[in-house]
Amino acid sequence: MASKARRITIVGASAAGLRCAARLARLEPDLNITVVESEESFSYAACGFPYVLSGDVEGLEKLRHTGDGALRDASYFAAVKGFEVLAGFRAVEIRPAAHRLVIQGVAGTRELEWDELVLATGARPRRCAGQPEHPRIRMFHRADDLRVLQDKLSGKELGKVVIIGAGFLGCELAESLTAIWDTQVTLVEAAQAPLSKVLDPEVGKLVAAVLRQNEIELLTSRPVEKIEANEGGVRVTAGGRVLEADLAIVAVGLEPAVDLAVDAGVVLGPTGAIAVSDQLATSVPHIWAVGDCVEVAHALTGGPAHLPLGSLANRQGRTLANVLTGRADSFPQVAGAFAVKVFDCQVATVGITRQQARKHFDSVRSVWLSSRDRPHYWPEAKDIYSHLVYDASSQRVLGVQMVGAGDVTKRIDLAAQWLAQGVTLGRLGQLEHAYSPPFAPAIDPLAEAAFVALNQEEGVEALSPEAPFPDLDILDVRHPQESQARPLEAKRVTCIPQEALRQRFHEVKGRGWLVVCERGPRSAEVARLLQANGMPACYLGGGLRWRNRITPMP
Amino acid sequence: MASKARRITIVGASAAGLRCAARLARLEPDLNITVVESEESFSYAACGFPYVLSGDVEGLEKLRHTGDGALRDASYFAAVKGFEVLAGFRAVEIRPAAHRLVIQGVAGTRELEWDELVLATGARPRRCAGQPEHPRIRMFHRADDLRVLQDKLSGKELGKVVIIGAGFLGCELAESLTAIWDTQVTLVEAAQAPLSKVLDPEVGKLVAAVLRQNEIELLTSRPVEKIEANEGGVRVTAGGRVLEADLAIVAVGLEPAVDLAVDAGVVLGPTGAIAVSDQLATSVPHIWAVGDCVEVAHALTGGPAHLPLGSLANRQGRTLANVLTGRADSFPQVAGAFAVKVFDCQVATVGITRQQARKHFDSVRSVWLSSRDRPHYWPEAKDIYSHLVYDASSQRVLGVQMVGAGDVTKRIDLAAQWLAQGVTLGRLGQLEHAYSPPFAPAIDPLAEAAFVALNQEEGVEALSPEAPFPDLDILDVRHPQESQARPLEAKRVTCIPQEALRQRFHEVKGRGWLVVCERGPRSAEVARLLQANGMPACYLGGGLRWRNRITPMP
User: Fold this and answer.
1) In DSSP terms, which residues pair with B324 in a beta bridge?
2) ipTM of the shown complex
3) Tens of pLDDT, residues A96-108
4) Do A416 and B409 touch (CB under 8 A)?
């Protein structure tokens, strides 16, 4: 092994580390590449864990195989990819000056010499304050966590489970546990709605409705105060409420695994993750970092963010391999595109929420839309509820949140390309898309959202779907059959269908109005018309559909 | 009617004209807006016609209603949108100097005075050379065309139909006619594969396979020489072959309807459509044009293009309303995003084909991929066949064509945003997307396509899936079970699985190779490895899956 080849040592055999190693070996077959991994079994597609539990994916081992059926173990990486994985070795110390990494396996300690060191140490689940160590209080992160849960479910030991945290993992697990198992799930969340890091409350409440329709007991605004466990069960105290169950799963987010880096003097950023340049260099020469342990540059805040996502990890691994072999490459700013499936509902977002935006911009406003992913006449057209956040003074789009049975990831992907570039409402409205009735309406919901925001800036103001009704007369402009089928429970309601309004204008003259309809467009049109005739008017954003949380049914 | 209000007259009540009128009326309720329309019934969502025929959409009238169930007739536009539609009036002459439009209805001729005139005259179906007028030889464009076809189908008059032209309409109609009707369809095409305007032949042949799997008789490279009809039937002679049927449908594309414009001295562009500025002004002051009758600026060729698409028409209508009311707006260049459903296969493209690209760029190359729209372990993951065309010297991406049962419009929409901006392969590879296993793989197929092209530029060259095998030894690197299940019908084949290659390197030494596998990635890796060891090598683009046209089954 006393070769003259450049030695590259990588700590961590997940997406970022393995991708980097594989590309390095392809680009320069003479490199001496070693990946150190603490687990004996590795290279699972861990994002698939909840779907093994739900039965969607046929088994854990499927997540460790390639598309053509090869098992991704150390011998696979040696034979096919051309690099060594030292599995079952924990990296315990970096000696930057000596260019050495100390690793520890069952047989003892070894030292590896490197020319370049890559940290791909990943992230680990955050713990609750005062969380006791007990077999009935679990995290869900590693393959072993999945195996334990599967065993207990198969053994019918889990009649009732409390999940702490309604973030993306909490929502995924709530669905998985109820999918084929007869488990009763209580999901406890400190914020006022699920997915609060990426959704403003009025959007999160749509997701809450979906969870509840699917028989998840969802408790919001309930910060966990105490977790206790004994042989008989677990007891979670949250917002004064005591929940008893067979198991508690803590799913309150991920934190970067940076101990090794910190000990070596690598500088962390304000998020607590490793600070890296756009070429993925750390503060210590010849030490690089990729994946869930690093910060990325967020295009909307202009500052750093910790976004542990497999898609970013993969791209960073590839980018670093390019950099380390002298190619011109760098990792760009990210817009923060995110997606999660919650039963039959898709949730996807990009950019920042209104709440986050207010910390960075002065004139943050937003609009709400209840639209469809295909033309209304297409039989499989499904709902999309959209919330678009923007800065009024610059007309810059800051965030898009979409929820619904419709195809929302498609639109969030589109938004991601533009938001990172600082797109304005006007430009987003000129979005080009591949239009055909089976796939999309003639105006895409994302462009429509931009139009609605532009209209708002011209004075057609939306009231938030969650806001209390203001002290205005309410004008219901739906067709009579709609108003009768779904009557409006409010005071001072006047029903005049949009199509009759111009004839019956004398009935509305001289007053201020909140105009309402099913989805928003009709009431927005009427609000504009009233204003043009000298009457103050606004409309209900997202229409009564949103306000009444008419969410996709199972 | 002697009001002082500005008079805007619009010719044509389809998407572009009506959208423009409706927004004008919203922005300036005092405008005097008149839309002139030759048909009595109008405002159909005509893109849905084939799906009425197939039974997907429940009836023609559905296409004339809004999402909330209102019928879009003249009284609807007057009452709800606030403008007049003169239906049943044909615009016969523009007098630009006098600012007058002559229109003709059943009751005679009238003249309308305008301050601004908007031409939204649309497109009409192209005819074949020497196409006779006969009830058995039909076009499919207007609601009446659909009604006639429905009647004949219901009356079981159409046992056999010949469709001339395998463009998007021909493909849609072929599917519609076989969907619920027991009609035998022959689809005749002059080019060597379907959809030849947007797909290079090796991609079009995948669509051909789908059509044939669904029992369409597809005849390619057969230009139509003669169409004859009599009371008993129709006879189409194409490429020397005589086809007899009950009906022929001519679907050879659309041409802009520009007679009225030409007579008024409005200048046409090189495509034969009306030339407009980015503010949609024609060459004649105060005459504007939008929709299927105008040219757009194509971002990839830098020149004009005629792209009659409902999505562009809608946006142009809105843009022109903004312009006419003094707002800062303009219609941007287009990348040409396009989609069509062909049975269970999605086809979507953007940019230009390799064939078109060669007219504009000097170093056009392309790559082929057989990938999936979701992670391979996801049970509903479906195939996507991608063809990416680029200019090697600038590394600019020129076109992307995707076909498959997988979600391809999503990726083409993404590509559309970037291609219009002149994206390079490197930047496209850094595509950010919302990743979650139910919706997308960690590396999106579009980014993967960029990677494969970048690899090709580093020397990992792909052979076209349709090319004859070159005079090289073939190295099959699939697993033995794959090679046995789907053996390669070729001479000089050596089978060494990728995982065994490093051990068996002596068996391949010193020769040139074409490396093959199922989908491409394994053979590309091996080709790179062989090259690094001094052996000339290339790989089969898209793998054997593409070459053998393993297309989505019904």
Assistant:
1) none
2) 0.96
3) 999 999 999 998 9
4) no
